[in-house]
Amino acid sequence: MRKILVALDGSKNATRGLEKAIDIAKENQSRIVGLNIVQVPTSYFISKSKMEMQENMIKASKKIIEDADRKCRASGVSFESKIIPGGDPGYDIVKFSKKSNSDMIVVGARGLNPLKEIFLGSVSNYVLHKSKIPVLIVK
To answer: What are phi and psi of 47, to 5 degrees?
Structure first.
């Protein structure tokens, strides 16, 4: 296992997923690719200008990536990051995993979307069923 893709959205489960990925990477001398997908909630169109909204979303994404980078460096694990625009995180994660030739995907069981917390999580469920590589779902 050379490359582990970790979906990072700022949620507690994603943070725990990163920690588990770090453990696996250390054991296998793998590198971690942290992926953050910038989504634009519909409510932002009503309350903020488009430019201000984009700046806020990118700033939040950079902070998530910087925190992940810091944790990986502290553990001696190689880390690279990618922030991409997207509309469907599950689809975007699977597509990126193919493009980046990842060997494994790590996702949190549930992300930041409070409306879907009753189930496993629509993103993790999609990734689990559509990925052709191993998927680790972390709670």
So the answer is: -100, -15
Where are the chain's structural domains? 3-138
Per-range mean pLDDT, top range of 47-51, 110-114, 118-122: 47-51
pLDDT in tens, 39-64: 765 555 555 566 677 788 889 999 99
E strands, the chain, are 3-7, 31-38, 79-85, 104-108, 135-138
Separation of CA 88 from chain center: 12
Q: Which CATH number is 3-138 given?
A: 3.40.50.620
Q: Output b/e per residue, 36-62; b: 16+ Cβ within 10 A.
A: bbebeeeebeeeeeeeebeeebeeebe
